Amino acid sequence: MEQSYVVAEKFWPLLRVLFLAQEASIKLRKHFFPFSPLWGFEPQASPLDSIKGPHTSTQGLGPWCSPTGSPAPLSCETGCGEGSWILVCRLLVPTQVSLLSMEEDIDTRKINNSFLRDHSYATEADIISTVEFNHTGELLATGDKGGRVVIFQREQESKNQVHRRGEYNVYSTFQSHEPEFDYLKSLEIEEKINKIRWLPQQNAAYFLLSTNDKTVKLWKVSERDKRPEGYNLKDEEGRLRDPATITTLRVPVLRPMDLMVEATPRRVFANAHTYHINSISVNSDYETYMSADDLRINLWNFEITNQSFNIVDIKPANMEELTEVITAAEFHPHHCNSFVYSSSKGTIRLCDMRASALCDRHSKFFEEPEDPSNRSFFSEIISSISDVKFSHSGRYIMTRDYLTVKVWDLNMENRPIETYQVHDYLRSKLCSLYENDCIFDKFECVWNGSDSVIMTGSYNNFFRMFDRNTKRDVTLEASRENSKPRAILKPRKVCVGGKRRKDEISVDSLDFSKKILHTAWHPSENIIAVAATNNLYIFQDKVN
Amino acid sequence: MMLSKGLKRKREEERETETLAGDAWWLDPSLPAAAQAPPATASSSLFDLSVLKLHHSLRQGEPDLRHLVLVVNTLRRIQASMAPAPTLPPVPSPPAAPCVADSLLASSDAALSASMASLLEDLSHIEGLSQAPQPLVDEGPPGRPVGGSPPSLGALDLLGPATGCLLDDELEGLFEDIDTSMYDSELWAPASEGLKPGPEDGPGKEEALELDEAELDYLLDVLVGTQALERPPGPGR
């Protein structure tokens, strides 16, 4: 202890500053932010109203899914040009508020059928923030701003209702993350789910990783359809029996019960990220995964929660020199030693973990030289990569920046092999989009199962598909007004100038608050999931 | 600050093309400008907008680092393009901005906690104090200078040297009730007076402290012991 006094005295001036600064910081925070912005949002209707509302029980998923004919067997080979897309179903995740009042209803399957929310009942917590199919496509998981995960399961094909195949119903709902308070920094940690990634299935249970800004959790989702009955020491209600009253012994038996799906947190990987986690990726060895924040990437073993390896660190010694952050990262689908990460400057780095423990030096560096004719103050912002995805084959990577999607060949670093314009008509509007912060929106991009078609979102609830082989592209819209169930989606067109045709929409009429940031493509079939605010649209390719 | 519909209203075709050209004034001023608005005032309004965004970002408890970095880099580009223009006054529109900016940042919660956080991070070789336990990594960059400045300082640099503007009277009153007697007792007489609280004391700290890693380690061990008691257990423990 003596020694600590001596040392402390030496550093006292510094410590004094730190202690005073912390007190001052807490006071300032209370002065400027007396109310937390996160919990100020009110639902617009009482939960009871919604339960008793007109859309209960019998309607199920509503009229959208009434079959009009059996869809032909689907295959990946049909590109987006030949087939047409039909709406399979629109799913509204049950709102947070109404879920609380339905505590006694364990069977979550009933929830989606028994109350159907109108758009006006939705709260901000219901905004979907991530969508992901599992490896077979049987399950579809969504995460929302309120920290909740909702898993949908594909309707099983049955003899009676073969037409209903392709629809998804609620399978399980659970609260993955709660809002937290970081006492050291006096900051709130949002519960919004940034990413969900499935693990490949190895037994009867399903496993997924979900993450918010700071903490990754491994969830186990399993079914229970039997329960033991006939205990000796407990009665039917679970109360302990007086041993003196037991005269005979019996063997408990398993009896069938109503299907119950339960989700339990199996691992919590916390306290490893100083900055906000933007990506998680499961390694092909199925033993490790990585989590990436703005400046660092950590490697985890699924079994070990109290430590992780830091494999990338781009934090400068002097934070003043910070000019670039990590925006996304992903493992190679087959090579468990390789991964890529993208940056806010539009670069991608491929790293090999065999080269060194700390992968600050890349094996490959992908960057396209700037086009001088398009240079502007906003060049860097629009070049910032918001998503990076390996193709299923592992030969290509796809990146999304503000205006384009690019496909890169891993063997060619100096430029992409393909560039697709998502909404080039916005190039002349960048100043306005900077003003309203839309220029910072992070769009995701996805491959189809055969890597022949790529898809990404845009504004006005539009999403775009590009067929890499035929070079055709299509713009579709995910909205209630324009989608009748099983009707074929009509391609949309944005008119950039000159005369506007009847079906076209002018750039100035686009609704920038309706953005499609998150989409997912079934791993083997032409079924896509598109998240629009709190709505999840599922479309499938109808081949005639 | 979302646009619900497009900014512009419907108009005839000629005016439409005119406005589109007008909206392109922010293209690099070194290119021949066909736009109506002179690049100088256009750049400066973009500059002001960026400064505003920067402040808004820094006001957040924990700023979105990507947003911050992109805004700062854009601000640097704009400033770089504004500086050499002969028609502009020596320090374009920013004269009003830095004082406001400085006082805002000086009183900013984020600056204090950011400087504290980065200071702690630089000091601690013991990961227990920081948010990131990484005991297996041997390759942390050695000998990082103490007193690394937070991102807010980098932004301040753009606007001019940090003047350490004094806090408002109103804010002064906020701190009156902080009991400093514990920190001012004789036992803990400060070794040197060269230090002022606030984000701009990076160089001062460097001189005052002799980096003795073993001593620092020991001291922080003691601190961690007390901190661990105060912090609530995380979910994974």
Describe it.
Chain A has helices at 2-32, 47-52, 96-100, 109-114, 379-383, 430-435, and strands at 84-92, 128-133, 139-144, 148-154, 168-175, 180-182, 187-189, 195-198, 206-211, 216-229, 253-269, 279-282, 288-292, 296-301, 309-313, 326-331, 338-343, 348-352, 364-366, 387-390, 396-400, 404-409, 418-421, 445-447, 453-457, 462-467, 473-477, 494-495, 505-506, 518-521, 527-532, 535-542. By secondary structure, chain A is mostly beta strands. Chain A has a single domain (42-59, 80-541), classed as Methylamine Dehydrogenase, Chain H (7 Propeller). In chain B, helix 3 (65-82) runs parallel beside helix 6 (151-159). Chain B is built from 10 helices and no strands. The model of chain B is unreliable at 1-38, 86-113, 119-168, 186-209 and 233-237 (pLDDT under 50). Chain B is mostly helical. Chains A and B meet through helix 1, strand 11 and helix 6 of A and helix 1, helix 2, helix 3, helix 5 and helix 6 of B. Chain B: One of its GO terms (cellular component) is nucleus.
Could you list some keywords that capture this structure?
heterodimer; A: 544 residues; mainly beta; Methylamine Dehydrogenase, Chain H; 4-stranded antiparallel sheet; 32 strands; B: 237 residues; mainly alpha; 10 helices; 50% helix; disordered N terminus; disordered C terminus; PP2A_PR55 (chain A); repeat (chain A)
What is the topological layout?
The complex is a heterodimer of chains A (544) and B (237).
Chain A (H helix, E strand, L loop, with lengths): L1 H31 L14 H6 L31 E9 L3 H5 L8 H6 L13 E6 L5 E6 L3 E7 L13 E8 L4 E3 L4 E3 L5 E4 L7 E6 L4 E14 L23 E17 L9 E4 L5 E5 L3 E6 L7 E5 L12 E6 L6 E6 L4 E5 L11 E3 L12 H5 L3 E4 L5 E5 L3 E6 L8 E4 L8 H6 L9 E3 L5 E5 L4 E6 L5 E5 L16 E2 L9 E2 L11 E4 L5 E6 L2 E8 L2
Parallel strand pairs in A: 28-29
Antiparallel strand pairs in A: 1-32, 2-3, 3-4, 4-5, 6-7, 8-9, 9-10, 10-11, 12-13, 13-14, 14-15, 16-17, 17-18, 18-19, 20-21, 21-22, 22-23, 24-25, 25-26, 26-27, 30-31, 31-32
Chain B lengths: L12 H10 L16 H21 L5 H18 L13 H11 L2 H15 L27 H9 L9 H6 L6 H4 L17 H7 L4 H18 L7
